[in-house]
């Protein structure tokens, strides 16, 4: 951790030294230079996710150091604020839902230049760092999505994974096998297990290699939560197509062109399909917990530790961040006993 966050410590020393000089211009210049430097190195990273994660972690730590130096009461900043959340000790999951590409990589420097003027104020320095972090965060998500997840939704990568399996696996997981839905589920499970692993290696190759890394572990989990939420939407839209031959309509919200990467056939709603989907979601959630620590049980523990006045709001926020929320709801609907639909209340809820 000492080596990973060396840039953050050096920038903080530069800024705090300028603050001791009692010169507002020097203090403002140090803050502005630090923000400009972070933007410059982040742009130089291109779509290299490990390097972007490195600088995101350093920006968060820099802001935490400045916060601690000026006192938390006067200058409240948290790690969670880097991605639009409230205090990381009391996460507001609902506010995490960033707009995709909400911060333009082309105009980040000019936007900060236009919106921030009083650089002598530490709060302005913090706000500018927060904007930079949100911009880097969105770039990481976009890179992970298009470099890792989207290719696994196309026929080419799926076929490569098929051919890379052993002969026995190909026979069992074969996409043209006559055994049907069970083979489809097994193939989809192997495909997405590989996708999650590839994303893990792309975000932090050091941790993926089994070594300890000094970067903030919470960042990789927050990045993956956003990608999983987007994958949830993509699969939900693909499963709801009327037939497997239907063409995708939206390259962002409906990008799956090969329906055989789905855990259940598209356009077929039944109790068996719902149970199959629920089983697949359970497997994916366990893999995500092992890799990133994304665990729905943590959300329930947070609820129990919160104050009674915040209980209802927290339940709403936690429910919105549950992994594969749409697919879970769809599987519950498919598994609904038909005789329950005789109840007007149940029909209204459905």
TrEMBL record:
Highest taxon listed in the record's lineage: Eukaryota
Matches recorded under InterPro entries: Nup186/Nup192/Nup205
GO cellular-component term (any): nuclear pore
Identification of the protein by name: Uncharacterized protein
Native source organism of the sequence: Fraxinus pennsylvanica
Lineage of source species: Eukaryota, Viridiplantae, Streptophyta, Embryophyta, Tracheophyta
